[in-house]
Design goal:
It comes from Diaphorobacter aerolatus. This is Adenine deaminase. Belongs to the metallo-dependent hydrolases superfamily. Adenosine and AMP deaminases family. Adenine deaminase type 2 subfamily. The chain has about 350 residues and is of the alpha/beta class. The protein has one domain: Metal-dependent hydrolases (TIM Barrel). It contains 17 helices and 8 strands. An 8-stranded parallel β-sheet has the order 1-2-3-4-5-6-7-8. Bound molecules: adenine and zinc ion. The site of adenine has 11 residues, from α4. Zinc ion binds next to β1.
């Protein structure tokens, strides 16, 4: 299972939570709109004169009892309706990046959903410039490396995705790739073949959500029709041995989101999560927070709760997960090498 050639020293289990928190790591799967905490939703609603369907922060939080992906998405899109100005997008992203820095995230690749905003009349420039300015300022002031990935909403037609990509082209240098999110089942990756081909021609990185609730066939078509470099979620791959072999052989990273999977009932409990099976089969699995304000925690909470609940996970798995996240990031090679040295030193010191 170890692609790193680094046998870590024996580490006492009591020291593992501290190590999980302190190790340098990359976050590759988080939706910036999913970092809107209820308090910020209410603050922005007041600032912008937006009416909410919930009477209080507590009432909103109580609604966070999800049964599947769609039950979450309905509330998530309602929450995003408070975002109107460039400053709103900036404040949201800075708040997330503060949390990421506190969790020793050295690299954050953040998804954003422009269609959620442009459909409400918010300009593409407002969305992208606000988020971009937050990345630049956080990098300068806090040293975190941050980048943006533009996601297409898969419940909408491909024509809308094509138009969104064209509308974003004046800001081509502000994002590093494209992704595919929203309601998965019934919207297979191949529905977006043309827009991904166009993004590839533009030199953008390609990722897609596949195998969160959808079948292994969606992971195959994300790889073979869209040509993605990473699979977001991908936990349903375990149902297809040939696919497991392919993912391991090509070291295609899976950006797994444990607390999201628990809250959206992808697994009965967190203890039933298949992350160890993925790692032990040689897959480049990583840990991520997805929509941290909705699912009960940011990066380090995902790591510590996962390792608390899944019995067989060891320090070697922790090292592998952090190593994979850095390896699979779209950062510059020199940065990745520097972070991997820091990771190794962190485990040698432990
Ligand atoms: N948008 C935000 N979070 C998502 C998830 N977990 N799956 C699909 N689309 C999303
Ligand atoms: Zn996601």
């Amino acid at each position: 299972m170890n692609a790193t050639n680094f046998e870590i020293p024996a580490i006492d289990a009591t020291r593992l939570p501290g190590l999980l928190r302190s190790m340098p790591k990359a976050e590759l799967h988080m939706h910036i709109e999913g970092s809107l905490e209820p308090e910020m939703i209410f603050r922005l609603a007041e600032r912008n004169g937006v009416k909410l369907a919930y009477a209080s922060v507590e009432a909103l939080r109580e609604a966070y009892a999800f049964t599947d992906l769609q039950s979450f998405l309905d509330i998530y899109y309602a929450g995003a309706s408070v975002l109107l100005t460039q400053q709103d997008f900036y404040d949201m992203a800075r708040a997330y990046l503060d949390r990421a820095v506190a969790d020793n995230v050295v690299r954050a690749e953040m998804f954003f959903d422009p269609q959620t905003h442009t459909e409400r009349g918010v300009a593409m420039a407002t969305v992208i410039e606000g988020l971009h300015r937050a990345c630049v300022d956080a990098e300068r002031e806090q040293g975190i490396s941050a980048a943006l990935i533009l996601c297409f909403l898969r419940h909408l037609p491909e024509e809308a995705a094509l138009q969104t990509l064209e509308d974003a082209l004046p800001f081509r240098d502000r994002f590093i790739g494209v992704g595919l999110d929203s309601s998965e089942v019934g919207h297979p990756p191949e529905k977006f073949a043309r827009v991904f081909a166009r993004a590839r021609d533009l030199g953008l990185h390609l990722v897609a959500h596949a195998g969160e609730e959808g079948p292994p066939a969606y992971i195959w078509s994300a790889l073979d029709v869209l040509g993605v470099e990473r699979i977001d979620h991908g936990v349903q791959a375990v149902h297809d041995p040939d696919l497991m072999d392919r993912l391991a052989r090509d070291r295609i990273a899976l950006t797994v989101c444990p607390l999201s999977n628990e809250k959206l009932c992808v697994f009965p409990t967190l203890a039933d999560h298949n992350i160890q099976r993925l790692l032990d089969a040689g897959l480049a699995a990583t840990v991520n927070s997805d929509d941290p304000a909705y699912f009960g925690g940011y990066m380090n909470t995902n790591f510590t709760r996962l390792f608390e609940q899944v019995p067989g996970l060891t320090a070697q798995h922790a090292y592998q997960l952090a190593f994979n996240s850095i390896e699979a990031s779209f950062a510059a090679v020199a940065d990745k090498q520097r972070w991997q040295v820091q990771l190794r030193e962190c485990f040698e010191r432990a």
